[in-house]
Design a protein that fits this description.
The chain is mainly α. Helix content is 62%, strand content 6%. The protein is built from 24 helices and 9 strands. The two termini are 59 Å apart. The model has no long low-confidence stretch (mean pLDDT 85).
Length: 555
């Protein structure tokens, strides 16, 4: 029930240094991010801390990822703002009171999905979707930091408009801001190469803060994080009128879907690189827990952040103790460190995020897909473009839809072949796989590599009839190799009944070989086996021996 706790129970002392450094770094990133994302949600910056304190600790107990950085996130913040704004009618107090209610609803919907074990939906997220999604997120992260990185004021919220706006405002780049950003980024890259185990992000943030403070660069246009008000949240159970709850249902469902997709894709991308697995259904439980905890603290809906996931992974962290430390760092900020953190230069934090974005852009994944499948390569391109042009959820839905279409096309027009006998292999195989193969006169062995259903049943009939026409001689037996079929639906069963009747009128025996129990059960229910005209054999060789015995041919 608590996989994170089980991992922490086996904690090794050697993991502490990397986890501590990563936790402090993520905490330093989370403080300004949660403030900014609260504003995206239409709330005062203070509410960002309410959404950042408990979720990392909660995820450390319930989540299956060792690196996923949870808390305020721009996508869910914007979706929440859209749903609440229409309902609050411009009343700030009502707006603020509805946000934790919405977070609680997201948590409850995620819990319901976990109870129904809908985590299998993550299986729709294939490698092309994964590669394209994480690359699109990385590029979107890069574009989101253009303003802070250069000092240019950018209003656009999407990738291409943002890049276009930036290209038109190049003359307004602030040299000192760009110098701090580039210096921090170069230092991060250099430390990663020269001293990969060093806490690069923490060292760079500290150094940049001291330099900016000593030279008073903030007086020359370098923006700082700014003053932070330190107050603790008052935990409470969020309540709202039933009519408001009903109206928030579509928004809550959308945020739950976006949050779950974001969490699973981000977690799986990091887990695949570091050699462990993600429990998709457990991530539904974790999504529920982090949103319920945010609601309890008076925050807003939360999910995961790609940068806060990539950074601890790059720093070599081992467990979700990182999230606990980051949460404690946020708490310390509220109580003790607000004056010091106010001097952190925003360009330096932008450089940390840019470095993390570079790390998650999956160039190697695209190279691998290009070698394996050009179709899947372009699916990954479509997923990335969907994220960049629209948003994260739309990008995933576009890629999943295209993946389903490609899969449907593959099973609608699958591979098939008339098999030949390979003496060296003692079996019947595709003629393309062997140099020499032979056939028996009067026998045709046909293989079809897909489930037989309404979309390909006519192709099966047409292809088999074509094989019979082009094959020399009159077939006395037709053996259907069902190893690749697996299942047969009602439309295909009707087609088989008509086909068997036609072949029997021509005097041919129809046999099925290597069918599994599911396909055999379907054939039996439709009365195709036995008196229905088809004979079943466990192997092709056993069918061939029966043919040889009845016809007197050599087997």
């Amino acid at each position: 029930m608590l996989p994170g706790l089980a991992l922490l129970a086996r904690y090794e002392r050697g993991w502490l240094r990397a986890d501590l450094v990563a936790g402090l770094t993520v905490g330093a990133m989370l403080v300004p991010q949660c403030m900014a994302y609260a504003e995206l949600a239409g709330l005062p910056p203070q509410f960002g801390f309410l959404a950042a304190l408990l979720p990392p600790i909660t995820y450390a107990l319930f989540g299956s990822s060792r690196h996923l950085g949870v808390g305020p996130e721009p996508g869910t913040a914007v979706l929440a703002a859209t749903g609440i704004a229409a309902l609050s009618a411009g009343d700030p107090a009502r707006y603020a009171s509805l946000m934790p209610v919405l977070a609680a609803m997201v948590g409850l919907f995620a819990m319901l999905a976990a109870v129904l074990r809908l985590g299998f939906l993550a299986q729709l997220l294939s490698k092309p979707v994964l590669v394209g999604y994480i690359t699109g997120v990385g590029l979107t992260l890069l574009s989101s930091q253009l303003g802070k990185f250069t000092g240019v004021s950018i209003a656009s919220g999407e990738f291409f408009p943002r890049v276009w706006e930036f290209s038109r405002e190049l003359s307004h780049v602030r040299p000192l801001t760009l110098a701090v950003s580039l210096g921090s980024l170069v230092a991060l890259i250099a430390l990663k190469k020269k001293a990969p185990r060093a806490p690069a992000a923490l060292l760079v943030v500290t150094s940049a803060t001291l330099i900016v403070w000593a030279l008073r660069l903030d007086l020359h246009g370098v923006r700082l994080v700014g003053a932070i008000s330190g107050t603790l949240p008052r935990p409470h159970l969020p309540l709202a009128p039933w009519r408001d709850v009903v109206k928030l249902v579509p928004t809550a469902l959308g945020i739950a879907l976006v949050g779950y997709t974001d969490n699973v894709l981000t977690a799986r991308s990091i887990a695949a690189k570091l050699g462990y697995r993600i429990d998709a259904n457990r991530e539904l439980v974790a999504l529920s827990a982090i949103n319920l905890s945010s609601a309890f603290a008076g925050g807003f809906p939360v999910s995961s952040g790609a940068s806060r996931t990539a950074v601890p992974a790059a720093l070599g962290s081992k467990t979700q103790l990182v999230g606990v430390i980051a949460s404690l760092f946020v708490l310390a900020t509220l109580l003790l460190l607000a004056p010091a953190l106010a001097h952190i230069p925003q360009p330096c934090l932008a450089a940390v995020i840019v470095a993390a974005a570079f790390a998650i852009i999956d160039v190697d994944g695209y190279r691998s897909l290009w070698k394996v499948s050009k179709t899947e390569f372009f699916l990954a391109i479509a997923a990335a473009l969907g994220v960049m042009v629209f948003d994260m959820l739309t990008g995933v839905l576009v890629a999943v839809g295209l993946s389903v279409l490609v899969t449907f096309a593959r099973i609608t027009v699958p591979h098939d072949a008339v098999l030949v006998r390979a003496e060296a292999l003692d079996g019947w195989v595709d003629p393309d796989l062997v140099r020499e193969g032979s056939r028996l006169e009067g026998l045709l062995v046909y293989r079809f590599d897909a489930p037989l259903f309404f979309a390909n049943s006519e192709r099966f009939r047409e292809r088999l009839e074509l094989m019979l026409e082009t094959n020399q001689g009159d077939e006395e037996w037709v053996v259907l190799d069902f190893e690749g079929v697996g299942d047969v639906d009602a439309t295909a069963l009707e087609m088989l009944s008509e086909l068997v009747a036609q072949l029997r009128e021509r005097g041919a025996v129809v046999a099925v070989a290597r069918a599994n129990d599911r396909a055999l059960a379907a054939l039996q229910r439709s009365s195709l086996l036995g008196e229905g005209g088809m004979t079943s054999f466990a192997t092709i060789n056993s069918a061939v021996r029966a043919f040889a015995h009845r016809s007197g041919a050599g087997a």
